[in-house]
């Protein structure tokens, strides 16, 4: 063994230490800590934590750094009625837990555990979302009003999630360097995946005003759909996490409700197109399939990779057809 271990080897050892520390306690409560990053990034890791650790003790959620809240002491439990599955953490609650002392795990910690176990993330999300995604009554009432409008719209309903803002800058980061998904990519993906679908109602949800306008124009032109009017995103240039995190709590509460409503609209629409460059469409895909019984073939990933589940099946049949033609 060389004197200086490689970065990969150090990463493996750190991951092994995390898992060993968890395994050392046969039953123990867990405190999962949200951070200041985006909604989907935090919640997807919460679902992972529930999937891995819920059978081994109480799950507490530390909301202190979670940006999506209505008050300083609020957070996830402002909007979701997840007790007793996911309990709101306080030092007093942790001290009183019958399975204390609790282990504390953040996003990086739970990701290492899941990567070591080698079960796909989506399987944990499917297990956990039906238990965690329980809207509080006041949230459900507001969401239901928007869903009633969706239900009354001309069918089919087609939701496109146009992600601009800081996601575009993220695409260009040296450690990421991925192809940006542009407005035309969403519309062309829909047309190519669902060539027989025309008309109906298009719901164009997004943050960057110019991109939403461009996607709306293209959707009308290529899909011949009627646009469902929506109030624009609060910031013309699109979402920027650091800016959102600095908003007063009242505004963060309002925008969090807008986000949850948009998510429910995307999950209930007959068709959905997003980009898997963003964590949000991964969540929407799971919500559609698990919570609302949508067939996975009704969702498409507009990124350059086209990672949606059913596209792999379409690709198989395309290749099979080409082979049959080649064989005469």
Automatic annotation (TrEMBL):
Signal peptide positions (record): 1-28
Keyword Repressor part of the UniProt annotation: no
Statement: the UniProt record of this protein carries the keyword Protein biosynthesis: no
Family matches, as Gene3D superfamilies: 3.40.50.11350
PROSITE patterns attached to this UniProt entry: PROKAR_LIPOPROTEIN (PS51257)
Any one GO MF annotation of this record: alpha-(1->6)-fucosyltransferase activity
Alphabetically ordered keywords of this record: Signal
Domain of life: Eukaryota
BP GO annotations: protein N-linked glycosylation
Designated name of the protein: O-fucosyltransferase family protein
């Amino acid at each position: 063994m060389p004197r200086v271990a490689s970065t990969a080897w150090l990463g493996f050892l750190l991951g092994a230490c995390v898992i060993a520390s968890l395994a050392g306690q046969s039953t123990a409560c867990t405190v999962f800590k949200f951070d200041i990053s985006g909604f989907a990034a935090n919640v997807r890791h919460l679902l992972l934590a529930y999937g891995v650790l819920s059978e081994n003790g109480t799950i507490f959620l530390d909301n202190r750094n979670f940006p999506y809240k209505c008050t300083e002491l609020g957070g996830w439990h402002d909007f979701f009625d997840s007790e007793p599955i996911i309990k709101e953490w306080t030092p007093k609650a942790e001290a009183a837990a019958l399975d204390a002392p609790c282990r504390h795990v953040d996003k990086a910690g739970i990701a290492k555990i899941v990567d070591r176990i080698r079960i796909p993330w989506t399987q944990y999300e499917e297990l956990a979302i039906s238990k965690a995604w329980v809207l509080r009554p006041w949230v459900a009432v507001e969401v239901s009003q928007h869903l009633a409008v969706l239900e009354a719209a001309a069918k089919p309903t087609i939701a496109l999630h146009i992600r601009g803002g800081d996601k575009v800058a993220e695409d260009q980061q040296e450690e990421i360097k991925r192809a940006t998904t542009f407005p035309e990519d969403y519309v062309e993906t829909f047309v190519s995946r669902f060539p027989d679908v025309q008309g109906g109602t298009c719901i164009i949800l997004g943050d960057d005003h110019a991109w939403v306008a461009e996607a709306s124009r293209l959707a009308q032109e290529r899909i011949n759909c009627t646009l469902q009017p929506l109030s624009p995103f609060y910031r013309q240039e699109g979402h920027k996490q650091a800016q959102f995190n600095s908003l007063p709590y009242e505004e963060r509460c309002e925008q969090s409700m807008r986000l949850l409503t948009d998510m429910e609209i995307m999950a209930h629409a007959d068709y959905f197109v997003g980009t898997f460059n963003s964590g949000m469409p991964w969540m929407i895909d799971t919500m559609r399939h698990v919570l609302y019984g949508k067939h996975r073939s009704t969702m498409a990933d507009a990124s350059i990779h086209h990672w949606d589940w059913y596209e792999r099946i379409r690709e198989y049949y395309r290749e099979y057809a080409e082979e049959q033609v080649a064989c005469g």
